[in-house]
Design brief:
The structure is a homodimer.
Chain A lengths: L9 H8 L3 H9 L6 H14 L5 H6 L6 E6 L5 H16 L3 E6 L4 H13 L4 E5 L6 H16 L3 E5 L7 E4 L2 H14 L5 E5 L5 H16 L9 E3 L4 H14 L5 E4 L2 H13 L9 E3 L16 E3 L2 H13 L8 E3 L3 E3 L13
Parallel strand pairs in A: 1-2, 1-3, 3-4, 4-5, 5-11, 6-7, 6-8, 8-9
Antiparallel strand pairs in A: 10-12
Chain A binds a DNA duplex through helix 2 and helix 4.
Chain lengths: 346, 346
DNA sequence: CTGAAAGCGCTAACAT
DNA sequence: ATGTTAGCGCTTTCAG
């Protein structure tokens, strides 16, 4: 397709700087064996000419690849959009290019994307999004990735623990605990959970946090309705419908992410159920619109943009002895969608 | 079980199939000049061995690049996230990889990104987002891109007209007209506009639509306050502050995109100004959260996801004689943020 | 410290 | 129809 790029090659820079190809290469790669003086001259000339190495030639010749592959569920999901924004932000600074693909929360498709990225010789692969409770798929992904890592590829994951790679781990359990404790503190006891697919690690972890908070108040998950639907807005709507129909006395709904919470709020609005007067609602993630919803959403803030950056930072460092883990921290953000439990004591 | 073997080269496949390198290359590329029989044998051997071509070698040697570069303002802006989602969706189907970079709405940075993408030998470049009213920057971008296109690169743009490339053109003017006519129809006359930077084509076009609707009602843009701030949420907030302070009798605010509209709504909420009772608000784009805001936002729907797909479709077709243009259509979505003008007859 | 030269794996002219 | 060969632009020995 595209034949000539800028047509500017390393050899041109070399000539212009009055040095050989090899020296120019060394200078720009910051390798040993060039005097500071010459190296600086070369770098300056390269700069002036706006030289950018041809990554294909570079990689083919055995150099490092400068593209990072990023796999997300969907970029047009705000959670992943923010993560992607973080990755791209740091990548820009490092002059790296980011290739984004969608996993669609389908383990098979995700595996295909990983393979594709490897075949394209991405030097770094970042996988964002929940792992699956699907041992076979996970094992295969792990096998492929560990082969890739053995070959020098760097991998970082966001929000999954079982992949033998450096990981950014969102505070899912602690966050689930925080948000549940908040509700319990407001006096709510008839709480329902709008959860995503039960096979997603994220769902499992957040549920664990919910469960532990309940336990501290002498309750158990078994006491409350947990509705598993899709981990997206529409799932929140249908979950709410079910909760309303089957457990009308519910006073609070925990949505396991903000997308679902938006669906929950929408359905409550349609049904004319006041929030938080008759029903409190909490979400999880604090996507940027959470503050603008009707009413503004109480949720757990996860630093998505930073998470993206952190993942790339991890991947940029040389591999350690074992997988590194980097927790994200979290913050309970109380807004207008939660209030005291209505007094329905008798 | 075929496993993509690094170290497995085309020459190995060729030997194994008892043909020459060139023949194997032709067979796998589906090019002319190989008997069906031989071609099939080669393909089968390649399959058995799990051969995957090295894209770097392929591209370096002048083959087609399978990556498409996408430049957006920011992926974590919902408007661009949806466009990106559309591009990636189609790219996935075509087994293409998408490289995303941020322009940050800075002409200089955008130009740098274009150059970077070209240097990376992206076969296709898609630029989403408004052009700038900056002749020098635009001219330079056009020059670089036309060189790229002359070399066989394909370019498609979304929402800018002055780049000599195939374009997807959002119905900015018609949409601006529609939304303004809606307000006028509700009896509003004291209308203010919260606009983005005056140099953005998108802003200019949408304003033109606003102006034409006003004209039909015997009004003119000069009659109303137009506040230019940043084309993002925060800009909507500050614009609203100014409008409230300087034109307290305003009954409706036109925000030139949904992000700004969100800021407008937020500020009105803070000030305790009822929407739509005391103030109507309209946005533009219909990002997916527009329906979930407080109150839900009246806006103009643009098919962002399709726009992304269309752009890639255009780029995938061979270049035409001249630049193709593809309008998007639009749809006025009336929700709860607009109502009749309050009766302040004096 | 620097330069010359040998590939990396593939495509595409050029031969046969 | 098939084979031979010259690069693509870079990194990396290996000489000097």
């Amino acid at each position: 397709m595209p034949k000539p790029g800028p047509g500017l090659r390393l050899i041109d820079v070399a000539h212009r700087a009055g040095v050989s190809l090899a020296t120019a290469s060394r200078a720009l790669a910051g390798r040993e064996g060039v005097s500071e003086e010459v190296a600086n001259r070369v770098r300056q000339v390269a700069d002036e000419l706006g030289y950018v190495a041809n990554p294909f030639a570079r990689t083919l010749a055995g150099g490092a690849s400068t593209t990072v592959g990023l796999i997300v569920h969907q970029v047009d999901d705000p959670y992943f959009a923010e993560i992607a924004g973080g990755v791209i932000g740091l990548a820009d600074e490092q002059r790296l290019l980011v290739q984004i693909c969608h996993s669609g929360r389908d383990p098979g498709h995700e595996l295909r994307q990983i393979r594709h990225l490897i075949a394209q010789r991405a030097g770094i692969i970042i996988i964002a999004g929940s792992g699956y409770d699907d041992p076979r798929a996970e094992a295969e992904a792990e096998a492929v990735l560990s082969g890739y890592q053995r070959g020098g590829g760097r991998v970082a994951v966001i929000g999954r623990h079982a992949l033998g790679a450096d990981a950014v781990l969102p505070d899912n359990e602690a966050g689930g605990h925080a948000v549940t404790a908040h509700l319990l503190g407001l006096g709510h006891r008839r709480i329902a959970v709008a959860a995503g697919a039960p096979g997603l690690n994220t769902v499992i972890d957040r549920m664990a946090g919910v469960a532990s908070a309940l336990r501290e108040h002498g309750l158990s998950l078994d006491d409350l309705p947990v509705v598993h639907t899709d981990f997206v807005r529409e799932g929140g709507r249908t979950a709410t419908e079910r909760i309303l129909a089957e457990h009308p006395s519910t006073t609070a709904i925990i949505a396991l992410n903000d997308a679902m919470a938006m669906g929950v709020l929408a359905m409550l609005r349609e049904r004319g159920i006041g929030v938080p007067t008759r029903m409190s609602v909490v979400g999880f993630d604090d996507v940027s619109v959470a503050a603008d919803l009707a009413p503004s959403l109480t949720t757990v803030r996860l630093p998505m943009i930073d998470m993206g950056r952190m993942a790339l930072e991890l991947a940029l460092e040389p591999a350690g002895a074992g997988p590194r883990r980097r927790p994200t921290g979290h913050q309970l953000i109380v807004r207008d969608s939660t209030g005291p439990a209505p007094d329905q004591s008798r």
